[in-house]
Design goal:
Blueprint: H1 2-68, H2 76-90, H3 101-226, E1 235-241, E2 246-249, E3 262-266, E4 280-289, E5 292-300, E6 311-313, E7 317-318, E8 321-322, E9 324-328, H4 341-350, E10 354-359, E11 365-367, E12 375-378, H5 388-404, E13 407-410, H6 411-417
Parallel strand pairs: 9-10, 9-12, 12-13
Antiparallel strand pairs: 1-2, 1-6, 2-5, 3-4, 3-6, 4-5, 7-8, 10-11
Amino acid sequence: MARQNQGLQIALIVFVLLTLGLGVTTFFLAQQSNEAKQIAKDARKKSTALSDAFSTAKDENERLKKLMGFPPSMEFSEVNAEVNEDINTYAANFEGETRGYHQVVAYLHQTIQDKMNSVAELTDQLATLEAQIPAIEAAARSQIQTHAGKLASVQQQVQQQVAAHRQTEQRLAQSNQQTTQELSKVRTDAQGQVVKISTKLKETGQKLQGAVEQGRKAIEKLSKLKTKTFETPDGEVRFVDHKHGKVWINLGRADSLPSQITFAVYPADVTAPSEDTVKGSIEVTSVTDDHLAEARIISDSVRDPIMRGDKIYTPIWEPGEQRRFALAGVFDLNDDGRQDLDVVRNLITMNGGKVDAVAGADGKTIGQMTLNTRYLVLGEPPSAKGRPGWLANYGEMKSRAEDLGVETIPVSRFLDMMGYRPQATVRQFGDRPGGNAGAFRERNRATEGAPRRAGGSVSELYERRQPPRGGAGGAY
């Protein structure tokens, strides 16, 4: 029983303590709740005040936009951009420190007032000028009348001067007649003077012709002293391959040697080459080195073949110089009765030369012969029958060459000196019409077309030779 009472007491004490703790806690919670309510009440008051202020500012902002002419919904940045654009457009010259609408309106008002004042002043000046117009018109009418009187006086004076001019013309006509008579007399006297002057001119012309003849002779003498002759060869043969018809000469790229140029070949011991000393001709086929070129043998003699050391020459080409030529006459190279002028011209141009002038068959000269022309190549004189102008042109070209000191050379000698041989006309006999088949031996059909071979031994003169290979630093 005692233990039960003791448990009840303990339980009662715990209950009392719990009650007291709950009461204290409730007190403190109630106090905090009252404070929170007071804080919330104050916050609502402040929020209401701020809301009222925001509403007031918004209304004022919208009224301000309306006063400035902008819609209420426009943003501040847009309003600011519009304001700046308006100020720059309508008040660009305004230089105030504060560039607001209020200041700009005052500035524009003042500007308008100034303009209106200027317009008023101009209106007053216009009225003053309009009032002066009648007086100005009256003065102008007076001046017009004065000038009209002067014009009438001037017209009268002009009429008087015209009459005086006519009288002067009559006097001049009479004087002109007298002058004509005097001029006729002077002309008669002048004719006598002309006859005397013509006689003096004729004498002077004869003297001048003599001086020209002396000058021509001097040019001819000078040309003979300066003109290069055929005595100087252009080069020489270095190697010979008779079996394949080839030679090598000591001219090449360093000498500006062109391909297909033709040279006449002379004996090595000839000191004065001429037509009679030509022993053959060669044509350059390829330039292989600075001073070495390969050529094919166009013509030579079995009795006197081309040998090493033989001299070569052509009148068309010279190292470092382009020879210039003139052509005149009839050039029948193969005796077929046709003009071979184009053949001669092509031979010159293909070998590096240049044709300055050609005597045409129509009597006109194509081109012009100058002091730089080296040779005048002459063909046969043309016949005067049918084409007298051609013959006259032929003589004029020769005279022109003499005056300029240009050396003349017959075409036959010219071709020999360059080693040219015209192609022979081949006539076939046998089965062709006009041929006498019985006068010729029957051809050997079995051996026809086969290469011919010698049956005996070959002299070392005709053995094949090769040029030496080019070495470093050598000319070949």
